[in-house]
Write a structure and sequence with these properties.
The complex is a heterodimer of chains A (507) and B (129). By secondary structure, chain A is α/β, with parallel strands linked by helices. Chain A is built from 16 helices and 16 strands. In chain A, strands 8-12-11-13-14-10-15-16 form an 8-stranded mixed beta sheet, sandwiched between helices. Chain A has a 6-stranded antiparallel β-barrel with strand order 1-2-5-4-3-6. Chain A has a two-stranded antiparallel ribbon with strand order 7-9. In chain B, helix 1 crosses helix 3. Chain B has a 4-stranded mixed beta sheet. The longest helix of chain B is centred in the N-terminal third of the chain and has 17 residues. Helix content of chain B is 52%, strand content 19%. Chain B has 2 domains: 55 residues, no CATH class; 65 residues, no CATH class. Chain B has 129 residues and is of the alpha+beta class. The chains are: A alpha/beta (507), B alpha+beta (129). At the A-B interface, helix 1 and strand 1 of A face strand 4 and helix 5 of B.
């Protein structure tokens, strides 16, 4: 202990004013599994933070169930120390988290405590207290989603465009690359210079701590941690923290949204969040419904995802894009939680195990994936180039059954099958290698304008690389830069691109 | 039986209300304890007693006061406290050395006036964090 503490104590005593006031109290009558039942506290509010005075220390709790003469609360600390008869005091504060720019590149718990061992979060900056539960912006405060949020994944940016302020669900079985899409999206944000870089918030719910550490390291290595905040409720933490993590992340996201900035939040994943809420609800003795989930499980997720919005110019023009992740069991999208979240979000990216094992990665099923915001969230250039991509893929899928009889089909069908295979090949992408939107345009332009028709599928990756390298070296200023700046494919740029591609293919 | 301590207390008070004399009251208490035994709810007795006290005090428009102090109160403090107490109040004094100094008044187990030195130290230490 340093001598500084003496000075601090002196200052605190000097500035301390005695203010004894009548405090409302209650008593713990039941405690177990992170839930306490408290007698008294007649005037307590829902979501109010309570302070339980145990012999050793004070433990915080969150009031959830307000009953006739008792309160059901969720313990936000170590519940082992709580005993029946302990005094509980009101704090008159609703649950909130400290938010500010200092949170960037940090790993925090849902209560705002640092988890990365880098000391206190807020130094000189004064943090803003953001409520975990807050009403979503009203209709008048919003604006239609019209600015693209590039993920760096060709399949998504070309066919399932995501806009800033949208809610797009990433759904699929385990081990199909759901988190990989989210991580790629975060990494791509600082590579994408089309619009200002959004702040990314990654909420890890119930994940192994080793996995979270790996993700942090990965983001650090790719230089993406500087614009990212990680809210972590690891597998070893209590259900209370699992339940609060998405709301804490959302509150941080809202802080940036309300400051007029763009933010992206990834909830990884909401299935585990629903499990945690089911556990808490059952322990609080709320009546169970379908699959033992409580009656308000839909509202739990709808009120969270409704907070993602694109605000009007009067409100600062900021946006919060939500990318919730949901894990399905054996591809069953008709289960309770997946259907709930599908109906709340503005579209879904559906990942399939079969595609994944066939080597189509990202394993996006384009037929079942959709973005309800549509081409409004695409640049003019992408709209122009990739407009017919979905149709061509759909036609290919219809003809796919004939692949094994390839020698017996007519020339036109053969050509269509070949083009489909090329497109599938072109859309393949390794994880952790997001492609900037201008480069995607070049590759898709070449593929959809028959420049790759005569190329063997095996040679496509090498050719794609060569094409991009050459254009980046020789045509950066005349092709790529105008595309990044304006997002438009003018006739002039198109002509230059055509000439460049023809030259490269001819070699 | 799954009756809450509050339900038992309400039932007892209602029954006790009908007692016309001391003998009736004794009978009421005896019967009540027999019922508790039959229901095997003896562990709830302490809570039941607390609720009975609370109901009776409320009925008489009084308060249930628990006054905690670190050491026996001096005459001056005692005078001040006495001036604040009504005749209908039930007062219990308790010595709690953990308070270090000062006083803590618990009213009906619903409100707390905490003027103890231990709480003040805790608050000061919170400020320095």
């Amino acid at each position: 202990m340093s001598y500084e503490i003496i000075e601090k104590l002196k200052q605190a005593i000097g500035g301390y004013k005695e203010k004894e006031k009548l405090e409302e109290i209650g008593r713990v009558i039941e405690s177990g599994d992170g839930i306490v039942k408290i007698y008294g506290l007649k005037n307590v509010k829902a979501q109010e933070v309570l302070s339980i005075e145990t012999k050793e220390k004070e433990i915080k709790a969150l009031a959830l169930n307000l009953e006739e003469d008792s309160v059901g609360a969720l313990v936000l600390g170590d519940h082992i120390d709580i005993k029946s008869g302990d005094i509980v005091k009101r704090t008159n504060k609703l649950l909130s988290i400290d938010a500010g720019k200092s949170l960037l590149s940090r790993v925090v718990s849902p209560l705002g405590l640092p988890l990365d061992g880098q000391g206190q979060i807020f130094g000189a900056e004064k943090p803003t207290q953001c409520l975990l539960e807050k009403d979503a912006p009203s209709v008048l405060d919003r604006e239609p989603v019209d600015t693209p949020l590039h993920t760096g994944i060709k399949t998504i940016d070309s066919m399932i465009p995501i806009g800033r302020g949208q809610r797009e669900l990433i759904i699929g079985d385990r081990q199909t690359g759901k988190t990989a899409i989210a991580i790629d999206t975060i990494i791509n944000q600082h590579l994408d210079t089309y619009k200002k870089t959004p702040i990314c918030i990654y909420v890890a719910i119930g994940q192994k701590e080793s996995k979270i550490a790996k993700t942090v390291e990965l983001l650090k290595n790719y230089g993406a941690l500087e614009h990212t905040i990680i809210v972590s409720a690891p597998a070893s933490s209590s259900a209370a923290l699992w339940y609060l993590a998405p709301y804490a992340g959302c509150a941080i996201g809202e802080y940036f949204r309300d400051k007029g900035e763009d933010a992206v939040i990834i909830y990884d994943d909401l299935s585990k969040h629903a499990w945690a809420y089911r556990q808490i609800s059952l322990l609080l003795r709320r009546p169970p419904g379908r699959e033992a989930y409580p009656g308000d499980i839909f509202y739990l997720h709808s009120r969270l995802l409704e907070r993602a919005a694109k605000l009007s110019k009067e409100k600062g023009g900021g946006s919060l894009t939500a990318l919730p992740i949901v894990e399905t069991q054996l591809g069953d999208v008709t289960a309770y939680i997946p259907t709930n979240i599908i109906s709340i979000t503005d579209g879904q990216i559906y990942l399939e195990s079969d595609l994944f094992y066939q080597g189509v990665r990202p394993a996006v099923n384009v037929g079942l994936s959709v973005s309800r915001v549509g081409s409004k969230a695409q640049t003019q250039a992408m709209k122009k180039i990739a407009g017919k991509l979905r149709l061509e893929l759909a036609q290919f899928r219809e003809l796919q059954a004939f692949i094994q009889f390839a020698s017996d089909v007519d020339e036109t069908t053969k050509k269509k099958i070949k083009r489909g295979q090329i497109i599938i090949e072109i859309l393949k992408q390794q994880d952790l290698s997001p492609m900037s939107f201008d480069k995607q345009l070049v590759v898709l332009y070449a593929a959809l304008n028959s420049y790759f028709d005569e190329i063997e599928s095996a040679d496509l990756p090498a050719l794609q690389l060569k094409l991009l390298e050459t254009i980046e070296k020789l045509h950066q200023e005349e092709i790529l830069e105008p595309l990044i700046k304006t997002g438009k494919m003018t006739d002039e740029i198109e002509q230059k691109l055509k000439t460049a591609i023809e030259k490269i293919i001819a070699k | 039986m799954n009756y809450s301590p509050k339900t038992y207390a309400l039932a007892f008070c209602e029954a006790a209300d009908t007692a016309k004399n001391n003998a009736d009251e004794d009978k009421c208490v005896k019967n009540f304890l027999a019922l508790i035994e039959a229901n095997r709810d003896q562990k709830k007795l302490r809570d039941i007693l607390f609720f009975v006290k609370k109901i009776i005090v409320k009925k008489n428009k009084g308060r249930l006061l628990l006054i905690e102090s670190a050491r026996p109160q001096g005459t001056a403090t005692e005078k001040i406290i006495k001036s604040l107490i009504k005749t209908t109040d039930i007062v219990e004094n308790k010595i709690n050395k953990n308070l270090i100094a000062g006083i803590k008044i618990n009213i009906n187990d619903e409100f707390l006036l905490d003027g103890s030195f231990s709480t003040k130290i805790k608050k000061i230490l919170c400020l320095t964090k």
